[in-house]
Amino acid sequence: MTPMIRTIVADDEPMIRAGIRAVLATALDIDVVAEASDGHDAVELVRRHRPEVAVLDIRMPRLDGIKAAAEIRRIAPSTGVLILTTFGEDDNILQALGGGAAGFLVKSGEPEELIAGVRAVADGAAYLSPRITARVVAHLAATGAGASARRRAAARERVGALTARERDVLACLGGGLSNGQIARRLHVVEGTVKAHVSSILTRLGVDNRAAAAVVAHESGLLADQSVHP
Length: 229
Prior knowledge:
alpha/beta, Rossmann fold, Arc Repressor Mutant, subunit A, 2 domains, globular, transcription, CheY-like_superfamily
């Protein structure tokens, strides 16, 4: 039997909480064990239930999702945090990821993304939907040139240790492409892309696609990379 992913949901709008619960109820391996209407109560529910995943709205009374994520990571490091928001500001995304969130989704995304995000975070992985990755990448593209010479040199050294095909895939990640888009771009199957992405994250020593995109931009890879046929 597949182990259940025990999950809490926190959002200050009852209708949104009901919608999240309804989506997650369609997944037989996810069990919503408790709900909260603010970040403070979400932290207390995590302390009490020790769930595998906490799904948090970024805008909540008493304690917002970003601060709640940091507190949850402090008191229950084994609980992964997935942030949901109707806002798309790049600073919010980067702040959430820097504060301990393992995933970030917009509420207007597909229901399947929510389920995939909960499963990925429960498995110890980071999860950013392609739309969120694209926003982070756009932000990085605008600011990456400001990286210090030392950071650029370090990034080039890390990227230089990758294989040619891994650099192709990393360039696509830096452009905000999803696995399916990368597969079509490079004329390979999606499973091969997933394997390359996993290897790239490990070899670069980063936790998620957005962090890999940072390295890609700081290294200058997107400026001089030509994709092999």
